[in-house]
Specification:
Belongs to the ABC-4 integral membrane protein family. It comes from Adhaeribacter swui. Keywords: Cell membrane, Membrane, Transmembrane, Transmembrane helix. Its main location: membrane. It is a multi-pass membrane protein. This protein has 13 helices and 14 strands. The protein has two domains: about 180 residues, no CATH class; about 210 residues, no CATH class. The protein starts with a helix and ends with a helix. Strands 1, 4, 7, 8, 9, 10, 11, 12, 13 and 14 form a ten-stranded mixed beta sheet that branches. The model has no long low-confidence stretch (mean pLDDT about 80). Helix 1 packs across helix 11 and helix 3 packs across helix 8. With about 400 residues, it is of the alpha+beta class.
Length: about 400
């Protein structure tokens, strides 16, 4: 009996025991589904993170007051907190930078804000940010309805606002908010634009729960403590990023009047530095998820081996008949190995399909990364199935090949 005939015999055996084949394949598919599903979810989440942070640009950096984020420490102790960057300092930095970079100035005005339109109001989860003429461009915010701020509105500090998509849907019930008024922070603002829907990025509201007002308007609003201004600089060429950062350091030291020999009173953070940290975290998630999936698959392989052992016992008389007709031990081993591999491969296809769907479904609940098909993990998953079939089916196949034909024929 040649290899082709042996394969056909193995497939006939699988077809004759269809229910057992389906149940066995389901055991393998659950293991593969967990492995591929976890890795797909991690890849999809990583893609969502990459899209979120790459939209900020790899050729940009932020300047904030040192200690402003409350994460600054020296040798495990809380470091010195420097005075916030003032409006005049931010303006001076922008003027001194000139055409060497596109500079945007912004200030966080309020968080957990309630916004009203008549009797309708939002939940207290709205952020209010003040920005200048470059703020929308540098932050990659696109105005879907209406327009950006005009030069006169920016210069005169008009009470105008650009709202996020979620705010518009809540207050205006799907209608265009442009031209209508909203009330917040003790003032009435006219809506001139609406931002594009950004989605649920990393569990937060993104730009959907954001309201942007002119920088001068935010600077003039009454407040309990002084605002600290954030500066984002975008350079045209990524190759000149480090030079621009060094130049910005010198400008900011001059603007902040940091004494010679004293540390900087500000921090410069690249937009892709957080992306690198997030990539490290997703790498650990991938290792952990792969380990969990491997353990699940190990349990599935043990279950498959047990079922194949039962199959050998049930088919002892069949093995004796085949040996009596001239089948060699090698051909018997091939038949049972082929059966194990085919069962694993069928389960692997189902497991990969359900794993990709499950992984993307989980990732869609966390981020807005789109549908991902990780072809690498699909290929790896199918190869793992073949490996599981070989490993789980070898011992039962070896045992079947060593059965004595006379004793097998007498087996009941």
């Amino acid at each position: 009996m040649n290899l082709i005939e042996n394969i056909k015999e193995g497939l006939r055996s699988i077809q004759s025991n269809l229910l057992r084949t389906i149940l066995t394949a389901l055991i393998v598919s659950i293991g593969i589904m967990s492995l591929v599903g976890i890795l797909t979810a991690v890849d999809s989440i990583k893609y969502s993170i990459d899209q979120t942070f790459s939209s900020l640009g790899a050729n940009s950096y932020d300047i904030v007051s040192k200690g402003y984020t409350n994460r600054y420490s020296e040798n495990g102790r809380q470091g010195r907190i420097y005075p916030p960057i003032t409006y005049l300092q931010a303006r001076q930095y922008k003027e001194l930078t000139g055409d060497n970079g596109r500079v945007s100035l912004s200030a966080f005005i309020s968080g957990a804000t309630i916004v009203k339109n008549g009797n309708v109001k939002t939940n207290p989860n709205i952020n209010v940010q003040a920005g200048d003429e470059n703020y929308l461009l540098n932050e990659n915010y696109n105005v879907e309805v209406g327009r950006p701020f005009s030069n006169s509105e920016l210069e005169n500090g008009a009470n105008v606002a650009i709202v996020g998509n979620e705010i518009s849907e809540k207050l205006f019930k799907g209608k265009s908010p442009v031209g209508h008024s909203i009330f917040m922070l003790g003032r009435r603002f006219k809506v001139v634009g609406q931002l594009e829907k950004s989605g649920n990025n990393m569990g937060g509201g993104g730009a959907d729960r954001l309201i942007i007002i002119p920088l001068v308007t935010g600077n003039q609003m009454p407040r309990q403590k002084a605002l600290t201004y954030e500066i984002k600089t975008v350079v045209l060429s990524k190759e000149s990023l480090f030079y621009a950062m060094a130049e910005s350091t010198g400008i900011m030291r001059k603007v902040r009047r940091d004494p010679l020999g004293q540390e900087d009173s500000f921090e410069i953070n690249r937009s892709d530095s957080m992306l690198k940290s997030m990539n490290e975290i997703t790498g650990y998630l991938k290792v952990g998820g792969g380990l969990v999936g491997f353990i699940t698959l190990l349990g599935a392989s043990i279950g498959l081996m047990n079922i194949m052992m039962v199959s050998v016992t049930e088919r002892t008389r069949e093995i004796g008949v085949r040996k009596a007709l001239g089948a060699t031990a090698k051909q018997i081993r091939q038949q049972f190995l082929i059966e194990a591999i085919v069962i694993c491969f069928l389960g692997g296809i189902a497991g990969v399909l359900f794993g990709v769907l499950m992984g993307n479904a989980v990732a869609s609940l966390i981020g807005n990364g789109g549908f991902i098909v990780p072809w690498l993990w699909v290929f790896v998953g199918l190869m793992v199935c073949v490996g599981v079939g070989l490993i789980s089916g070898y011992y039962p196949a070896f045992r079947a090949s060593k059965l004595d034909p006379i004793e097998s024929l007498r087996y009941e």
